[in-house]
């Protein structure tokens, strides 16, 4: 068997929960990255050893990407498999800075004996729960 020839993937009969790719299917991501790199489907097909029609089928989600095909596409596109498989990570807001007053009070609490720390923290927790 030719190492570049792959049998057609069959649709799974398993009822699996869909994977959330952040509103972009794996095929759509493959197409987007290919376009961002300025490559045609034919160029990607040549780099992966496939024909253009198969690249199109993968991008449209008609074929499921097997692990070896994910590696082939990643190499062809010059990206890591993580970049292909993972949704873009959402940027989180930077952590808020703690005020100097609060930090000073925390340092003073840490200098207390453990039993007084527990008593004070229990009081603070009760106050916060009541809010």
Describe the protein's topology:
Layout: H1 26-36, H2 41-48, H3 52-59, H4 67-77, H5 81-85, H6 100-110, H7 114-130
Explain what this protein looks like in three dimensions.
The protein has two domains: 1-89, lambda repressor-like DNA-binding domains (434 Repressor (Amino-terminal Domain)), CATH 1.10.260; 100-130, no CATH class. It is elongated. The protein is mainly alpha-helical. The model has no long low-confidence stretch (mean pLDDT 83). The longest helix is centred in the last third of the chain and has 17 residues, at 114-130. The protein has helices spanning 26-36, 41-48, 52-59, 67-77, 81-85, 100-110, 114-130. The protein is built from seven helices and no strands. 54% of the residues lie in helices and 0% in strands. α2 (41-48) packs across α3.
The general outline is elongated
CATH superfamily of the largest domain: lambda repressor-like DNA-binding domains
Note the total helix count. Answer: 7
Distance between the termini: 70 Å
Which parts are unreliable, with pLDDT below 50 for 5 consecutive residues or more?
A: none
- Rg, Cα atoms, Å: 27 Å
Strand content is under 5%
Order of helices and strands: HHHHHHH
CATH T-level topology of the largest domain: 434 Repressor (Amino-terminal Domain)
- DSSP helix fraction: 40-55%
Under the CATH scheme, which architecture of the largest domain would be assigned? Orthogonal Bundle
CATH class of the largest domain: Mainly Alpha
The structure class reads: mainly alpha
